Amino acid sequence: MTYDAIIIGAGMSGLAAGIRLAQYDRRVIVVERHNLWGGLNSFYTLGGRRFDVGLHALTNYAPPGTKGVPLTRVLRQLRLKHEDLRLGEQRCSEILLPDLRMTFTNDFEHFRAEVARAFPTEVPGFERLVQAVRDYAIGQDRPADQSARKVLPEFLGDPLLREALLVPITYYCSAREDDCDWHSFVILFRSMFLEGLSRPDGGVRTLLNLLIKRFKQVQGELCMGNGVRRILVDGGAARGVELEDGTLLEAELVLSSAGLTETMQLCGRQDLVRPADVGRITFVESISILDRLPEECGHVAATSFFSTGVPLRYRPPSDGLVDVASGVISSPNNFVSDQPPEEGCMRLTFLADHDRWCALEEDAYREAKAREVERAIATAAQLTFDWRPYTVFQDIFTPRTIRHYTGHVNGAVYGSPHKRHDGSTQVDGVFLCGTDQGYLGVIGALVSGISMANRYALVSA
Amino acid sequence: MTREEIIIAIKDIIETIAPDEETANLDPAERLRDQIDLDSMDFLDIVMELRKLYGVQVPEEDYKELATLNGCVQYLEPHLSDKPLHCAAQA
Ligand SMILES: Cc1cc2nc3c(=O)[nH]c(=O)nc-3n(C[C@H](O)[C@H](O)[C@H](O)COP(=O)(O)OP(=O)(O)OC[C@H]3O[C@@H](n4cnc5c(N)ncnc54)[C@H](O)[C@@H]3O)c2cc1C
Fold first, then answer.
1. How far apart are CA A318 and CA A37, in angstroms?
2. Nearest residue in chain A measured CA to CA from B58
3. Model's pTM, two decimal places?
4. Which fold, B3-81?
5. Half-sphere exposure of residue A347, counting CA atoms within 13 Å on the CB side?
6. pLDDT tens-digit profile of A272-299?
């Protein structure tokens, strides 16, 4: 079989790229190793309940018709309707540091006022930062991968305010240990603070159903449950792929959302991957179903980003399975919605060490999951409320689960610390989309799939 | 297609790719970008729709010719004069 393009992975970026190409009559196939689509943001059913794998919140909220913002662009490019996403806006979110609590909503004026309240002398610097963030264009002024921790003191003198911005942003995007690229910082500042957070009614299924429906409508071909075993390379250029069942598919263009390291492995070119390209940031996440709503316990935040120490320690723990000193708490109940989830739910995400989780035997693994999550919730409970007494059901996933379901080396949620912003690799015709191209999160991954498909399959074809 | 029909065809394409934009009162002499919210991704889509609906290939270096409605007519007339008008919304 010969295609104009083969796309590896039916996650957000792969599906978006697939829609773009099929929409313009390219012969395209999206190949996914698993039987379900969604990748890092997939869904499952357990104990009669429906769960989302990743989704806490969609970043980049904008009301219908807002000009010039990523959400509007994504919807246009994929021909989706804002109303079909059924977005419910967050009530509020919070940033919790030692002796500091700040809240933010989808109205940036609220956050401005919070900064002025907690850091009155920092207002001019903060305004300069906001302006720099608004004006930023990739490649201008400074390298994209410059350290946000190094740049921020140019604007903000108070280390606590710097930390208050870095904790949520680092948690939501950074593949880099103890830091975050300036480029990612800017993108996430816009996505979370200038735009905002929301959640589709029905969770990630709502979005995925729209993407799959659209892909089928434009006659895209989807191949599920049959991964790419090898990318066929001849004379330094892509010729096609070989699937796990031995099927050969031909194409001179391969867009891969598998990650940089993983894609080079598929090309048989591990030698091109430097150790520093391999990411290690990964998480444990627990999902607790409660017999009451979080708001009945006084908890109204959609997401709470916390660190019990400053500066944020953001790397795999050096001495244990997890690091519970920081994390993200999220509640799907705390979005304004016509159809809110019926049961109360609290999710908690914290840093973990991939290798230690993967070294555990089955019994020890199960026992460790229960023990470590107990410890993490105990920390989070001191900052919010203790939901353990109201918990009627719990599920936990670890770096081992993430690696299994996404194929990302080390279960690295944010992929490689060194992003390839132009998507190129050292193999002709093989391009990256998604996580390792450098746009993160659900909306970021969609933007990435769209822009890589446009650039390498539509404009240059 | 007549010159008027080419304008209808372009407006129809814009409404398909940017349904939230109003095209009725566009000034044909002014840049589209200055009147409605269209970025380079949207211009790519105008070109892609032209190709899909009418088989017209616009090379990248000519995208700038499509900046105004008058520019579109000027550039596209030789390619479209013998083609009937379609509706992009159905594609
Ligand atoms: C716990 C958690 C919480 C998150 N919370 C949020 C959130 O609240 N908001 C937000 O915006 N983002 C969140 N994210 C991040 C978001 O999920 C990702 O950034 C985004 O989904 C990445 O999409 P992608 O297409 O780049 O990659 P992926 O989703 O990783 O997709 C890659 C796909 O490729 C497939 N694949 C890999 N190798 C092969 C192969 N050889 N053959 C075939 N298929 C292959 C994989 O199976 C996978 O389906 C979260 C992630 C996690 C893990």
1. 34
2. A459
3. 0.95
4. 1.10.1200
5. 21
6. 999 999 999 999 999 999 999 999 999 9
